[in-house]
Design brief:
By secondary structure, the protein is α/β, with parallel strands linked by helices. 34% of the residues lie in helices and 24% in strands. It folds into 2 domains: 148 residues; 180 residues, Dihydrodipicolinate Reductase, domain 2, CATH 3.30.360. Strand 15 and strand 16 form a beta hairpin. Helix 2 crosses helix 11, helix 5 packs across helix 12 and helix 8 crosses helix 12.
């Protein structure tokens, strides 16, 4: 074992948890003294939570370390990354990394656990936990649902964070996740990265029904259709979660469900006054979507004699149209619409009009400001305008189409943010990883999955 050094980093091989705790305590003491100075009281490090990440591969270890470090800029924390390695011998290798000064404010403890020690996760990390702050257990990969190891670990945790999109044997593992609420303490929070990725879909549907004049449509929903990538039943998790969210919010009761060839699923729910809601899921391949990701959602129905339909498409097809006339030749080639659909053409017109105004009405002032030359001198004949693409990766685009009665179709294009783990984890932790809407949606989704 290496002795703790004067720096705020430490590393040890074949150590005990008591030795790791002693090194961590010594680092905290040095930090407090350095912050306080010679004439002031020691300043202990801030800590608002403990995040325990359990990994099984070197790649996941690096990922967990990077994410824990990134979120520490927002939440001062103690992060413990536990990597279970092959059963070679019963010993622990450990390291501690912590910045010597703000703005980053975290402690990162990495434990390489070999042999039987890996079966006692709770006993390993419990001595290191900070009292008085919540403890989140982030399990990268698939937790061992139903095992004593997981049950013991959850006894010391306030919440379990998983990514059901990464589960091995996803169908069975998802049902194991849903069963946790019946076998763990009642205050345990559950969070799922996949649920966070569904936020743009849920928010778009909620926004459709939010105006007062459209709220009656909620009691008139009769059809729901969802397209997803991949054919296996484990790829239906995201679709089932979205259906579970709608069904649990409206109090629908599942009557029957059946799965067919090619990933087709048909289900029937009963709403108030025995109104039937038909649900259809289907597998539709899309090159830029990963297995299990949603490609489209359609909700339709009738209320007060008015029909309605809202359709949300990810990575929508972009029909080609004749190039629009947006003015003189120099403006046409400087402001080409990216894709020439309605939104692209409208944006090209807008940019060309703005460009014409700038060049012909304010050219002298702009040129003088940019170059320092007197107005009219060294004026470029063809000023260059750099136009950013309206959208690059169209897999990050949602197209919403709304039809109400006989009115014209309303169209809305939005860009969704890339699904990086750090902001998704921050989003989940912002609710304390205890979201009752997710829990009820999870239960309803599991009911649908079991019926197939």
């Amino acid at each position: 074992m290496s002795e703790p050094k004067d720096s705020l980093d430490w590393r040890g091989e074949s150590v005990t948890i008591a030795e790791v705790l002693a090194a961590l305590t010594d680092i905290r003491r040095k930090f407090a003294q350095a912050e306080g100075g010679e004439d002031d009281h020691p300043h202990p490090r801030n800590c608002v939570m403990t995040l325990v990440a359990v990994v099984s591969t070197e790649a996941d270890e690096r990922k967990a370390q990077q994410v824990c470090t990134a979120i520490a800029n927002h939440h001062p924390s103690l992060a413990i990354v536990v990597r279970e390695q092959a059963r070679v011998a019963d010993h622990i290798d450990a390291s501690i990394t912590t910045p010597a000064a703000p703005p980053a404010d975290y402690e990162l403890v990495t434990l390489h656990v070999q042999g039987a020690a890996g079966e006692h996760l709770a006993g390993l990390v419990d001595p290191l936990l900070v009292s008085g702050v919540p403890t989140y257990l982030w399990w990268l990969g698939t937790p061992p649902f139903g095992s004593k190891e997981l049950r013991d670990a959850l006894q010391i945790a306030d919440a379990l964070v998983v990514d059901s999109a990464r589960f091995e044997r996803p169908y069975n593992s998802f049902l194991g996740l849903a069963d946790l609420t019946a076998h763990t303490h009642r205050h345990l929070g559950l969070s799922d990265f996949q649920w966070a990725r569904l936020a743009p879909w849920r928010e778009t549907l909620a926004q459709f029904f939010s105006p007062a004049e459209r709220r009656r449509f909620m009691s008139g929903i009769s059809e729901i259709g969802i397209d997803y990538a991949g054919e296996g039943r484990g790829n239906r998790i995201a679709a089932a979660l979205l259906v579970g969210w709608l069904a649990s919010a409206q109090g629908w009761k599942l009557q029957r469900a059946a799965g067919g060839a090619g990933g087709v699923v048909s289900a029937q729910y009963v709403a108030e006054q025995w109104r039937v809601v038909d649900v259809a899921l289907r597998s539709v391949p899309k090159a830029r979507l990963a297995q299990g990701e949603l490609g489209a959602v359609r909700v339709a129905g009738t209320a007060s004699g008015i029909t309605f339909k809202v359709s949300i498409q990810r990575d929508p097809e972009r029909p080609r149209r004749p190039a629009p006339d947006i003015g003189p030749l120099e403006f046409r080639h400087l402001h080409r619409p990216g894709g020439e659909d309605d939104a692209g053409i409208e944006l090209a017109h807008r940019k060309a009009a703005q460009h014409r105004e700038m060049v012909f009405q304010k050219r002298d002032v702009l040129h003088h400001t940019a170059t320092g030359n007197a107005p009219g001198e060294s004026m470029p004949r063809h000023p260059t305008v750099f136009v950013r693409e309206r959208r690059g990766d169209s897999s990050l685009v949602l197209l919403t189409l709304i039809d109400i009665g006989g009115a014209d179709t309303l169209r809305h294009v939005q860009r969704i943010e890339p699904e990086d783990d750090a902001p998704l984890l921050l989003q989940l932790l912002a609710t304390g990883a205890n979201d009752p809407v997710y829990k009820r949606s999870l239960e309803a989704a599991a009911e649908l999955m079991r019926a197939l």
